[in-house]
Specification:
- This protein has 5 helices and no strands.
- It is mainly alpha-helical.
- The chain folds into 2 domains: about 35 residues; about 80 residues, no CATH class.
- The protein starts with a helix and ends with a helix.
- The model has no long low-confidence stretch (mean pLDDT about 80).
Length: about 120
């Protein structure tokens, strides 16, 4: 019962918090993680996203050249940066538009490979 009261109090405090307080809490969380701002997080996420796509080709045993890995890393990393920026600045932090755009891009590229 006591835990429920604490949860309700914490929830109510979060609802009453204005945007300046939320930004301050977010920046404190980022500083604790060793990152100065959200842009560094987006950059790190984009690099990991690009590397993940390269790792998939390596794990599948597909024999592609270094140029292909370089292009794959650059294009997927740039796409991740763009989607992260869109999610943060345009879509108010929602990841749904990024998921839909990513799915549409995969669908189009798959159709081009299959029928192009």
């Amino acid at each position: 019962m006591r835990e429920a009261a604490v949860f309700e109090e914490a929830s109510a405090a979060g609802e009453n918090m204005d945007s300046a307080e939320k930004e301050e809490k977010d920046s404190i969380r980022l500083m604790r993680a060793g990152l100065s701002d959200a842009e560094e997080l987006h950059e790190m996420q984009a690099v990991l996203f690009g590397l993940m796509h390269n790792a998939l080709f390596l794990l599948a045993g597909l024999d592609v050249g270094l140029w292909y890995h370089t292009l794959m890393f650059l294009f997927t990393g740039a796409g991740a940066l763009l989607l992260g920026w869109l999610n943060e600045k345009i879509y108010n932090g929602s990841i749904i538009p990024g998921i839909l755009l990513y799915g549409a891009g995969n669908f189009i590229s798959s159709m081009l490979v299959a029928f192009g």
